[in-house]
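YM 10:42: ABC transporter substrate-binding protein sequence, as discussed on the call
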Amino acid sequence: MLHRRDLLKSAAAVGSTAVSSPFLARSAQAHEVTLDVLYAFPAFAKFHEPIAQEFMKQRSGIKVQFRAPAASYDEGHQTMLRQAVTNQLPDVYYSGYHLLAELVRTLVKRNQITEVAPLLQKEDAAWRKANYSDGILALGAVDGNIYGLAFNASLPVIYFNTQLVKAAGGDPDKMPDNWPGMIDLAANIKAKGTDVAGIAYNIHDWPDDWLFRSLILQGGGQMLDASETAAGFGNETGLKALSHCRRFVADAKMPLIDWDSSRQQFIAGKIGIFADTPARLRQVTDLIGDKFTLRTCTFPIDDKQKGGLPTGGNAAIITARDAAKQQAAWEFLKFVSGPEAQKIVVETTGYMPTNLRASGPEFLAPFYEKNPNFRTVSQQIERAKPWQGYPGGQSVKIWRTQRETVHAVMRGETTPEAGLDRMVRESNALMKSS
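YM 10:58: structure's back
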């Protein structure tokens, strides 16, 4: 893991004569620069499009053109790896944090990515300090160098139906802060209503390992051992995580349906507790309307001393080869990670802002005052940890293999003990095979 003092080793020496936006100094553009941009998840057009429109209003010489969005971070990652070989990369790409290191290392070998630290060097030091914390910059760092700027950032949160929680004897103001307590409450919700389920924790069909990793990290565990070459969850923490997964179904009667169906059931008032990314908070809030009172609370932590949470989301990287496009892409990265764009992201979704100024009175403070559910994710920022992939370039395949076993445990076809043994063996084998 990077130490903060190492993050800006090449960006620390910012000269007093640095220009805040050198690209803006060129008042007249010889011709329009068009940026080819790729992001994941089609539903995220709801904030990518208005941000691009606002950017183009302010940067008349730059046009942003989006490719068809990738279905997920994993699908986008595979697309980028293929297009690196065929030299068909976009100019800007939003990489999931858990796949960033693998992608960057691949692109560095082919000289197909622009390092961000030298670009930060050219910016005013006061501007950088006002907008980005070292922790936020760390999200875009690989092997001690910064290659991307954090765009989206999230930690898992709990959505819950206040009426169902009260009916089950729970207190919406004092939700359980550990998983045994949360599962017990979910079981009570189920016991009080024959047509409702206690909880939905859709780990069994999640497109990446974020929800599984959350259960490991919150219990004080690690995904890799000290050597970072083998699974580190083949222990009591991993066993508890899989035991929780089984209890979701056995005790709280979680329906093993896909995430979209779970979301629809929760919105209809048929599920009491719903674990999800805050990125969909706006959508869920609007769809619930006045059906019931929606609340959010922080993710339960079993190990209060060592427990953490993986930071989900993505960082924007520059893969343009043309010098003019690289400079235009840098202006775009600064804008999308700036307070105006982050305000759009947060209000449209529920993500944490990745810009220090964004939470201030000029931008999000009034919104948070009126919408306290959106504040929940930021209340667990001290638990945030990097979401790192596996070594060897097999992260996508490793999770898809692990997910099959998690699903089998949840169905009761495999015990947590046997499932854990299989997951560790298969994960290690895939890491070694690469």
